[in-house]
Amino acid sequence: MPAAVSIREVGPRDGLQNEEPIPTGAKVRLLDALSGTGVRRIEAVSFVHPKAIPQMADADEVWRRAGKVEGVRYSALVPNTRGAERALAAGFTEIEVVVSASDTHNRRNVNRSTAESLDDIAALIDLLHGAGARAEVIVATSFGCPYEGDVDPGRVAGIVERVVRDGADRVAFGDTTGMGTPRRVRELVTAVRDREPDVPVLLHFHNTRGTALANLLTALELGVTEFDASVGGLGGCPYAPGASGNLATEEAVHMLHDMGIDTGIDLDALVGVAELAEELLGKRLPSGVLRAGPRTRLTAR
Amino acid sequence: MPAAVSIREVGPRDGLQNEEPIPTGAKVRLLDALSGTGVRRIEAVSFVHPKAIPQMADADEVWRRAGKVEGVRYSALVPNTRGAERALAAGFTEIEVVVSASDTHNRRNVNRSTAESLDDIAALIDLLHGAGARAEVIVATSFGCPYEGDVDPGRVAGIVERVVRDGADRVAFGDTTGMGTPRRVRELVTAVRDREPDVPVLLHFHNTRGTALANLLTALELGVTEFDASVGGLGGCPYAPGASGNLATEEAVHMLHDMGIDTGIDLDALVGVAELAEELLGKRLPSGVLRAGPRTRLTAR
Predict the structure, then answer these.
(1) What is the ipTM of this complex?
(2) Region (Disordered): which ranges (chains A, B) (predicted)?
C-alpha cells in the first residue's frame, strides 16, 4: 500500500456542475472553505459556454474572488479553444480536457467521434503548452458506457498512447456513470500501464452502485496514488436521478486515514465543509461519513 | 479469490426489525419473493419479546405462512431460552444467538456484561444441540463500538475461542454501527483465524460510512466466503438516523458476479424483490444497484 495519496477535490467544479445553480458568493465560500482543509489539489471551475452549463457561467468571477492558498494546486476544465484561452487568461496553469472512450457517449456529449475529439485535444495541448500550462486528458466512460456497455481497456489504453504522444502531461480516468468495479479497475490500470508505464494516472470514481471505495482499494493495491473525490458526494449522476454520483471526499479520506495512508487533509475540517455544502445547496448530500461522522466520533454512554 | 460465496439474506429479520412495522402479509410476501431468487440462506425471523421488538411480534405466524423452498436454509435469531424454545417449536434447525464484543454495548442491549452473556450462550448452545439444532454465535460490535471506539481483535478472538469451546457450530461478526474498514476486517479475520482456524466464519457489514463493499473485497482476499446482506439495504442504523445500515444484497451480488464469483442468486430477480421491499415499506431504500440498475442495464441510445 502507498504511504500517501493525492486527493483532488472536485466539488467546486464537477460537483456543482451537476447540481442546481447556486449564487457566486456561495461558490466562493465553498472553494475557500476547501482551501482550508489541507487538501492540496482543487478542481476550481470550468470555462464552458453558459448556455451549455449555466452552473459555471460565473467561473471568471468565482475564480477572481476565491482566495488562492499557497501549496494548493488549482485546476480548471475546458471543452475547447475558447475555454482554454479563458482559463489561461484567468491564470490557470493546470488545465483539463475531456474525451469519452465510448464513441457513442462522445457523440452524445460533443457531437463528434472519439477520434475527432482526439484531434481537437492534440491542438489544445499545443495551445496550453505554448502558454506554459500543463495539460491533463480526462478519459470519460473508462470503466463502461451507459449506451455501449463494457468499454475495452485496450481501447482506453490506445487513447492514452495517442494523447501521451500528443504531449499530455497526465491522464485521468472517469467512471462517468458508476460502472466501475474492482475487476474493471484492475483490467484498466493494467492495460494502461502495459502501454504507457510512465504517465501519471488519476482515477475518478462514482459511487452509483456502491463500489467506489472497493474500487479505490483495488487501485491502491495496484499502486495508484491519485484520486478525484467530491466533498459531501456533491454532483448527482445525470443518468440515474437520485443515485449518488461522485465518491465523497470524506468517505475516501476516512478509509485512507484508517489504513494509515496520508492525504494531508484534516478530516474533521472536511466534514465541516460537507456540512457547509449541504447548507449552500439546501439539500442532503449522500456522504455516509457526513451523515454518521467518522468511526472515531463516539456516542455518549 | 473464491469461486463462490454464500450470501445469507437478512432483510426479513435484521432488516425489518430496524424499520417501521409492516403487516404480517407483507412480511410473508417479502420472504416468499426472496425464496425465489436463488439465494440459499435466509434469516427469516427472530423470536423476541413483542414489547422489546414489536416488528417481530408475529414471527410465529409469518413463519407458518411462508413457503419453505427446497434447498434454502432458513434461520432464526433468539435472545434467550424462551426464544430458543419458540424457534425450536416452530421447526428451525439453524438458530443464532448474539453477544456484543463491547461490554458497554452488551450492557446497553441486555443489561449484562459480555462475560455474563457468554455464560447464558453456553447454556443456550446446549439447549439447541439437545434439540438437534445448530447454533451460530453472532459477535456484535466486532469492528468497533459506538460507545467504546475500537474493539481489540484479540478480545473478539477470545470470545470466539470461548464459544467454540462451548460448542458453537459457527460464528458471525457484526459491524453493528458501520465502523468496519478494510484494515479492521483484515485485523479481525487474522486474529480469529490464529486462534480458531477451523470454525466457519460469516461477516455482516453495514454501509454506514461507505465501506461495505471495500470490506467485502478485503474479506474475499482473506478467503472468507460467507456474508450477510439485506435486500435493498433494508434496516436503517439506529445510531445514525438517515444513515444506511445493512449492506444491500444486490450491491454485494452485483460486485461479486462482475468478479466471476458465483452466488446462485438471480440479480434481476433480486432487484425486483428490492423494488417490492420499497413498495411494502412505502419508502426509498438506500441501495445503489436498486436505484441505478446493474451496470449491464444500458440506456437506450
Answers:
(1) 0.97
(2) 1-21
